[in-house]
Design a protein that fits this description.
38% of the residues lie in helices and 23% in strands. The chain is α/β, with parallel strands linked by helices.
Length: 212
């Protein structure tokens, strides 16, 4: 009898992993502007390996009264007032993001989405704060559970900095592209997939007790 194909919903206890990266105008999610957000969803192939799926990306207009720290803007190179960014209002961005994630979460038959990020507490705090500001009631994201690729890469690769962890995993990383939410989210997704798949190939999943 043929074993059923592996499914994403079984890999993380019903969680739908979504790789997130944000660029901001500071470190305080309640006062500092969210300027850019990217989300990468994942899928599982017939052998149970994790792969990148879809990418969602927005530039964000600072919310009314938002603080813009000069040092943060110099670091990420974002001009919040540049019309060429094609930025959208935060409420529109977060509603569209949550709607797209809920749709893919449902298609994967998962119960809740979980944020995957490098230094996840930072990205999660800005996502949660933006969702609350926008008055979104049906958030797909778990409010406090996250998967932190910083901790995972420290364990599996002996590195904590994203560029160094990627290079240790054999993933190309262009330092000039760093600090773009889109680029960093896609590289973090590749890194997360590499670590999860490496664990599986080493025999770490499925666990023997979970075997059919």
């Amino acid at each position: 009898m043929t074993s059923p194909a592996p499914q994403l919903k079984h890999r993380f206890r019903g969680y739908f992993p979504v790789v997130i990266d944000v660029e901001t105008a500071g470190f305080n999610p309640n006062t500092d502007a969210l300027l850019e957000i990217a989300a990468v969803t994942l899928k599982m192939d017939s052998s149970g390996l994790l792969l990148r799926d879809q990418t969602i990306h927005f530039h964000v207009t600072p919310f009314e009264g938002a603080n813009l720290e000069r040092a943060a803007l110099e670091f990420n190179g974002i001009d919040p007032h540049c019309a060429l960014r094609g930025a959208l209002p935060e409420t529109e961005v977060m509603k569209n993001l949550c709607k797209a994630i809920r749709k893919q979460q449902k298609e994967a038959d998962c119960q809740r989405s979980v944020i995957v990020a490098h230094n996840a507490a930072f990205d999660q705090s800005f996502v949660n704060a933006a969702i609350e500001r926008c008055g979104i009631k049906r958030t797909p994201f778990h409010p406090f559970v996250s998967f932190d690729t910083t901790s995972l890469s420290a364990l599996t690769l002996g590195q904590t900095v994203l560029v160094k962890a990627c290079r240790a995993a054999g993933i190309s990383f262009d330092q000039a592209e760093a600090h773009s939410a889109l680029y960093d989210a896609e590289k973090t997704a590749e890194l997360f997939c590499f670590m999860v798949n490496r664990w599986q190939l080493l025999g770490g999943w499925p666990l023997e007790d979970d075997a059919p």
